[in-house]
Amino acid sequence: MRALIVILIIVIVAILVLVGSGFVRLSQTREARAPQVSASSKGVTAKGGQAPAFDVETGSVKVGAKETTVKVPALVVEKAGQNQAQAATNNAM
């Protein structure tokens, strides 16, 4: 139950950040109307009602590429020589 509440709080905060930063714009295009409910001896009846409608505009993120020059360090590999073989032998003793 606590995990569900934490997730709900995170979702609400994310929505507030998106709306506050202007990345998402919400505008209501149709208002809500409650249904008309009547009760009688035959039962309960409901008529009408309307759900609200919203227009959601989201921002866009553009991803691109450009050419650039990057310096990469060089790696030099040398074969083991006599001096290196002797140093290895001395270290092993």
Write the layout of secondary structure elements.
Blueprint: H1 2-21, E1 24-30, E2 36-40, E3 43-47, E4 53-58, H2 82-92
Antiparallel strand pairs: 1-4, 2-3
How would you sum up this structure, described in words?
- The chain is built from 2 helices and 4 strands; from the N terminus they run H-E-E-E-E-H.
- The protein is elongated and about 105 Å long.
- It has 93 residues and is α+β, with helices and mostly antiparallel strands.
- Strand 2 and strand 3 form a beta hairpin.
How would you describe this structure in keywords?
93 residues; two-stranded antiparallel sheet; two-stranded antiparallel ribbon; 2 helices; 4 strands; 33% helix; 25% strand
Helix and strand content put the structural class at alpha+beta
Termini Cα gap = 65 Å
Roughly what is the average pLDDT, rounded to an integer? Answer: 85
Give the uncertain stretches in residue-range form.
none
SS strand fraction: 15-25%
The outline comes out as elongated
Radius of gyration: 35 Å
Strand order of the largest sheet: 1-4
